[in-house]
Amino acid sequence: MKQAFITMLNMQNKMNQKVHADWPAQNFEWYRATWIECGELVDHYGYKWWKAQAPDMDQVKLEVIDIWHFGMSALFKGQAIEAIAEAMVAELEGYQYQNQGVIAATEALAQNSLATKSFSVALFWDLLNACEMSFDELYRQYVGKNVLNFFRQDNGYKDGSYVKQWQGREDNEHLVEILNELDASGNGFAEQVYQGLNQRYQNLALAAT
Question: What would be one Pfam family of this protein (predicted)?
Answer without folding.
Answer: dUTPase_2
